[in-house]
What does this fold into?
Amino acid sequence: MYVKICGLQTAETIAAAVDAGADAVGFIFAPGSPRTVAPELVAELVSAVPQGIETVGVFRNQPIDEVLKMASQAAVSTVQLHGDESLADMARVHEAGFKSLRAFSADAYNGLSGDDRQAWDSERLLLDAVEPGAGITFDADVLTDGTPQGFWLLAGGLNPNNVASAVSALKPAGVDVSSGVESSRGVKDVQLIRDFVKAARQ
It folds into this structure.
């Protein structure tokens, strides 16, 4: 079970995620979030992340040239696009040497045509609630045509108390959490991070 802890801002919470066994740590570069961080700070933080742990920069509806510049400044390994970005944008990410994740709301993914779904399923995907980072779960019944065929992460409203049942029901390759391991909006809790990783892998 691949586990990503997202919206991190401090060395302490990154260390907690790594020590708990997370596979990836994520940083928000999309404007307007209480978790948004500067690329220069992230570059300092990721310098202490062990090799083998994926470092993910999260962007939403930002110009792709800006995304690639900020991801390079931050020295992250992976670019996550969380808006209306196209397959051509994903190709630009790959050409620049980054790994990628493409997030869809459950509704948006379910609304893809068969051909579009097949094209996107070759990418690593993340299925989220309509409002990312708000701690709201999506209704699994929306996925009337099933879940992605390739590697995909489940996100949206997960926390240490519900992640095990969500994994059991939907069988994702992994899970992604942000608000579900916070003591208050935007503030990560070290013990909740540990509890989440443990619960996700039970």
